[in-house]
Amino acid sequence: MKERVIALGFFDGVHLGHGALLRRTAEEAARRGCTPAVFTFDRPPKEVVTGVPCPLINSPEDRRDLIRRLYGIGDVLMVPFDQEMMTTPWDDYIVRILVGRYHAVHLVAGHDHRFGHKNQGTPELLAQKCAELGLGCDIIPKVEVAGITVSSTYIRRLVELGQIGRANRFLGHPHTLTGTVRHGRGIGSSRLFPTANLIIPPHVLVPSHGVYATRATLEDGSCYAAVTNVGTRPTVHNGSDITVEACLLDFQGDLYGKTLRVEFYEHLRQEIRFDSLGALRAQIQADADATRAYFADGIPACSAGAL
Ligand SMILES: Cc1cc2nc3c(=O)[nH]c(=O)nc-3n(C[C@H](O)[C@H](O)[C@H](O)COP(=O)(O)O)c2cc1C
Ligand SMILES: Nc1ncnc2c1ncn2[C@@H]1O[C@H](COP(=O)(O)OP(=O)(O)OP(=O)(O)O)[C@@H](O)[C@H]1O
């Protein structure tokens, strides 16, 4: 039987507060010689309960991948948050699901973690129940940056505002968007610069419209500095559909149909409408130069391994 130390929560963004739980989980699992794990849901419980859509910082795939890459926890139990889960009483959730089904021997949660039907489970009840059942338990105190509690809600707002540098300080890593490269309309490659257009995963927040210094990682794990536009491309397009297009610097090759990870480092400027393609082209060249200057000391090392 695979015994687990399990961290509890949704973990959107995999921010520095989450990091405190995940580090503790990995440490306790190593001490006990069992598996570190995360128990989370495929969609945000708040959205299912209230019916109000909550676009997320990360797709489920990126959330899973960040937990593994940054904190070394590969066992991410991502279960459907359905009617049955929603109405499971808090103690049943611990006894029947976490212990019975997933063999928890130690649970790790944050200072404000709520769980179970009607959010009736609290950190205090969790600690009490664990003591009763002979399980280990850690309640992690809140993590703050510059006096502000780190939370997914706060970081979502920063991403929406395009305040990527600040969002990254709370995340502890660059904001990440991974998608598949689709065909654009070919204007870029024929008359401007070749760009990789990402299919934006459903339900994910894109940063506010503008141009960003980014790092692009290809399926084979190789990394490039890239200048990325998020927006509606008002110079060449009248519609409102949003694209995320990355122009990889010093890269030549075909990326169509491939997976591409784009990490956002800095907001460079707003997206605007130019009077001519020539003016847009000159500006994109300047954006590429600004991106090279941003990464003048070298692009941060890629984490080992393919996507
Ligand atoms: C770094 C960069 C900056 C861009 N900035 C703008 C902009 O400010 N205004 C705009 O209308 N389009 C902007 N674009 C989008 C171009 O219009 C777009 O790449 C071009 O229309 C190609 O589209 P296609 O791939 O659909 O052919 C930018 C693209 C890149 C890569
Ligand atoms: N700043 C923090 N310090 C310590 N623990 C945290 C912090 N933020 C979240 N946690 C804990 O991490 C786990 C996952 O958090 P979760 O994703 O549910 O919350 P969150 O980041 O506060 O999100 P939201 O803003 O959507 O409520 C929970 O156990 C939570 O209590």
From TrEMBL:
<keyword id="KW-0547">Nucleotide-binding</keyword>
<dbReference type="GO" id="GO:0008531">
    <property type="term" value="F:riboflavin kinase activity"/>
</dbReference>
<keyword id="KW-0548">Nucleotidyltransferase</keyword>
<keyword id="KW-0418">Kinase</keyword>
<keyword id="KW-0808">Transferase</keyword>
<dbReference type="Pfam" id="PF06574">
    <property type="entry name" value="FAD_syn"/>
</dbReference>
<feature type="domain" description="Riboflavin kinase">
    <location>
        <begin position="170"/>
        <end position="296"/>
    </location>
</feature>
<keyword id="KW-0067">ATP-binding</keyword>
<comment type="pathway">
    <text>Cofactor biosynthesis; FMN biosynthesis; FMN from riboflavin (ATP route): step 1/1.</text>
</comment>
<comment type="pathway">
    <text>Cofactor biosynthesis; FAD biosynthesis; FAD from FMN: step 1/1.</text>
</comment>
<dbReference type="GO" id="GO:0003919">
    <property type="term" value="F:FMN adenylyltransferase activity"/>
</dbReference>
<comment type="similarity">
    <text>Belongs to the ribF family.</text>
</comment>
<keyword id="KW-0288">FMN</keyword>
<dbReference type="InterPro" id="IPR002606">
    <property type="entry name" value="Riboflavin_kinase_bac"/>
</dbReference>
<keyword id="KW-0285">Flavoprotein</keyword>
<dbReference type="InterPro" id="IPR015864">
    <property type="entry name" value="FAD_synthase"/>
</dbReference>
<dbReference type="InterPro" id="IPR015865">
    <property type="entry name" value="Riboflavin_kinase_bac/euk"/>
</dbReference>
<dbReference type="InterPro" id="IPR023468">
    <property type="entry name" value="Riboflavin_kinase"/>
</dbReference>
<dbReference type="Pfam" id="PF01687">
    <property type="entry name" value="Flavokinase"/>
</dbReference>
<keyword id="KW-0511">Multifunctional enzyme</keyword>
<keyword id="KW-0274">FAD</keyword>
<dbReference type="InterPro" id="IPR023465">
    <property type="entry name" value="Riboflavin_kinase_dom_sf"/>
</dbReference>
<protein>
    <recommendedName>
        <fullName>Riboflavin biosynthesis protein</fullName>
        <ecNumber>2.7.1.26</ecNumber>
        <ecNumber>2.7.7.2</ecNumber>
    </recommendedName>
</protein>
<dbReference type="InterPro" id="IPR014729">
    <property type="entry name" value="Rossmann-like_a/b/a_fold"/>
</dbReference>
